[in-house]
Amino acid sequence: MQLLKEKILNEGEALSETILKVDSFLNHQMDPVLMKKMGEEFAKRFEGKEITKVLTIESSGIGPGLMTALTLDVPLIFARKRKSLTLTEDLITSSVHSFTKQETNTITVSNKYIVPGDKVLIIDDFLAVGQAARGLVDICNQVDAEVVGIGIVIEKAFQDGGKELRDQGFQVESLARIQALKKGEITFAEEMEG
Ligand code: G4P
Ligand code: NA
Ligand code: NA
User: Fold this and answer.
1) What is the ipTM of this complex?
2) What is the pLDDT of residue 129?
3) Of 27, 57, 97, 100, which is best to mutate to test ligand 1, by the most ligand atoms within 8 angstroms of its C-beta?
4) Helix (H, G, I), strand (E, B) or coil at 38
5) How confident is the model over 89-117, as a mean pLDDT?
6) Which ligand sits nearest to residue 159's alpha carbon?
7) For the segment 65-77, what is each residue's pLDDT rounded down to a tens digit?
8) 179 lines ligand 1 (CB under 6 A)
9) What's the number of CA atoms in the CB half-sphere (13 Å) around residue 135?
10) What is the largest CA-CA distance in the chain?
11) Domain spanning 2-188: CATH 2.40.50.140
12) Which pTM value belongs to this model?
């Protein structure tokens, strides 16, 4: 997605060979106009999939997830990483290990909101090794909901998550794919169709 690539080039910052900082429009401040266009792009790429729910994980997946759900006219559910005061029963959980942060989180969704037969589109801001996406897939599997696709804002194509998920048969659509990062330098990979 050209607009997103331009935004990444203009405002993104490669902090190292593995980490891209995009705090000005995705991970801290959010650009709602860009978010809306990304939501429309995801909806287009997964057209005809009869999606009933969009599923993401707090916090940075909520922006793009909500705009996608708005375009598709379906609910957005975000998995929680911390214990909720009010989310107390009938929980579906999965364990997600973050290599970037070296910590393991139990992610949680109520089985009121992801139910058998749902056709779920998973949305997230970054795809690195794919642990977060795998945790969300696991939650859907536990309730016999079908994952019809995975939409990612920024895929780090030099890490294995995207390849592994595609090898497993998932349609993974990334709006920008990064081939390489170097301090002060961002190189994109070619776009690919799921
Ligand atoms: P994975 O989901 O592919 O396994 O990735 P990983 O465990 O490495 O990611 C852990 C957290 O770090 C996630 O956010 C993910 O979005 C974020 N992340 C991974 N690589 C990058 C990067 O290059 N740049 C930025 N800005 N973030 C990255 P999170 O902990 O869930 O936080 P948030 O959603 O509350 O922001
Ligand atoms: Na993030
Ligand atoms: Na995330």
Assistant:
1) 0.92
2) 96
3) 100
4) helix
5) 92
6) 1
7) 999 999 999 999 9
8) no
9) 26
10) 47
11) no
12) 0.95
Among candidates 8, 10, 20, 6, which has minimal Cα distance to 182? 20
> For residue 193, is pLDDT > 60?
no
Residues 118/138, Cβ–Cβ less than 8 Å: no
Annotated binding site for 5-phospho-alpha-D-ribose 1-diphosphate, which residues? 128-132
Give the integer Cα–Cα distance in Å for 108 and 162. Answer: 23
pLDDT at 194: 47
Ligand 1 atom closest to the Cα of residue 133 is 2
Q: Per the structure block, which two tokens stand in for 177?
A: 């794919």
Residue 48, Ramachandran bin (φ over 0: left; ψ between -120 and 50: alpha; else beta): left
User: Could you tell me which residues come within 8 angstroms of residue 137 by beta carbon, excluding any fewer than 6 positions away?
Assistant: 122, 147, 150, 170
55 contact partners, CB below 8 Å, separation of at least 6? 65, 76, 77, 78, 79, 109, 114, 120, 121, 122, 123, 136, 139, 140
Q: Closest residue (by CA) to atom 18 of ligand 1?
A: 126
CB contact set of 13 (below 8 Å; sequence gap of 6+): 20, 21, 22, 184
Mark the binding-site residues, compressed into ranges.
Answer: 20, 27, 128-132, 156
